[in-house]
Amino acid sequence: MDEHVRFGGVVPEIAARAHLEAFTPVVREALDRAGLRPADVGAVAVTTGPGLSGALQVGLAGAKTLAHSLGVPLYGVHHLAGHVAADTLEHGPLPDPCVVLIVSGGHTSLLLVRDLARDPVVHLGDTLDDAAGECFDKAARLFGLPYPGGPAIDRAAREGDPGAVAFPRPLTGPRDDPYAFSFSGLKTAAARWAERYRAKGEQPPLADGAASLQEAVADVLTRKAVAACREHGVGTLVVVGGVAANSRVRALAEERCRAAGIALRVPPLRLCTDNGAMIAAVGDLLVRAGAAPAPLDLSADPSAPLEYAALHPVGRAAPALV
Ligand code: KG4
Ligand code: ZN
Fold it and tell me: Closest ligand 1 atom, CA of 79?
């Protein structure tokens, strides 16, 4: 079994089957909760990448069928654009421009975002190795905490001292790329720290380890994000993705943005981790921007880079329909 446990603990074949089984009940429940009938749906948006190929294929086939049978347009959406758009569901349209710190299980990037539906997303910096969420997931495993590791580290950290362990702050030196990230060294440092106790037959003080690791990640993320806003003269920072649910990342971002006079936007917890509403939010932006729908041969792209919110040509944008 172990060699099949990849992608942060998810077995791809099982994930695809779970998607297949969940598709119809989830669509039905979403409509029920919204008090809508299928005929009320005006467009269908679906994640076409990045992600596990099998799961993407299932979603795409289902979305095509749904759009075709309802006679409505289909939009193929980048998963990470969904994370960015999630914030609009709570806080309204994004200011143009804004700096977005996107921190998830698979990605960590600092972006300059203008009009999400029309303009290309500019990458100010990306991680050179592990994503921030991946660092939490791997460290949690080393600490013997459950998966996903981020929430487990967050909980364990409540009882700990964030200054107990001097974990490194990777790529924060004067000659380092100001907006690039690296988290694999931090994971190794966490492993070494835990090993030092175990070698003596002792249990590592996990609360202190978790709090210190969380502090290091939050420090690096927020320091670079605020610097990006300052240097690009941007007044709003948006923090999104699963790791934006982290209590210390949220608190430190708030503290540093306040000190720098930068407006901070972070979605509520339920919209930080993966959800369907965030993909619908991108669909809504694309419809309003007059984007052309996807062709019927729209395909999934498991490793799609984030360039545009839509993962198919949307043509020349017409004036907004609002
Ligand atoms: O965005 P997301 O739901 O899925 C991906 O697109 O990857 O992010 C999942 C990641 C996981 O690595 C998880 O450990 C992390 O977000 N995460 C957290 C917290 N909640 C979720 N990391 C730190 N603190 C949290 N409270
Ligand atoms: Zn995600």
Answer: 6
